[in-house]
Amino acid sequence: MARFLSLRAEEDASRLGEIFAAHGQEVVLLPLQEIVALPAGLPDGPFAAVMATSAHAAPWLGAQPSLQGLPALAVGPRTALALRDAGWRDVRVGGGDARTLLPIAREIVNEDHRPILYAAGRVRHPETEAGFAEIGIALRTAEVYDTRLRAPDRGEIDGLLRVGPIDGVLVLSVAQAVCLPAFVSRIGTVRLLCLSPRIRDALPPELRTDVETAPAPTLAALAELAASGQEARRMP
């Protein structure tokens, strides 16, 4: 069984492990990030809908009972599940990228011209808010969680390698791509699998040469890429 290193925060890893296990792969953890809730206040409303581009926004939204009658926009299935667990019934799901929420949001705003409440991370990509502004949809943003980086020590890496070799590293965010060069050489020669082209492009040029990118920005697509690559390596 191939072993793939996940750099995600520990609380994000269970679903990732399940998806890779279904493809005959093992996921081991070396978190570069930890998620911290922020004491955000509720912006002035009213709102046409709420929006989350990460499951980490769901606990804060779930603590706002006045919002739960609104439709919720979720960037993908995992975020949608978290919103439903937080109490939402009307959840409209994008295709794993914030841009896929634009037509869904336009349909809502065409009927209700109020802004959309965006429950966001403190560290986020400006393209989301810029994309909504370009099509004339107003967002009210609440920063409800933060992603803080941590540096793995040599003992953590050595402990993983004592159990067995690492076949690949899963790079699931721009922050991970930026931090990876500081320690990847200690792991040895491994496959680098990126969730999206934007994440791939955040790697330094020397690591982009042989990087593999998922055909769609979903964990399932990344797991299929990992499995197909291992099969190809076993072929004579």
Automatic annotation (TrEMBL):
CDD domains, per database record: HemD
Note the InterPro entries from the entry. Answer: 4pyrrol_syn_uPrphyn_synt_sf, 4pyrrol_synth_uPrphyn_synth
GO biological processes: tetrapyrrole biosynthetic process
* GO MF annotation terms: uroporphyrinogen-III synthase activity
Q: Where is the Tetrapyrrole biosynthesis uroporphyrinogen III synthase domain?
A: 16-223
- Superkingdom of this protein's organism: Bacteria
Q: Which ranges of the sequence are coiled-coil?
A: none
Descriptive protein name: Uroporphyrinogen-III synthase
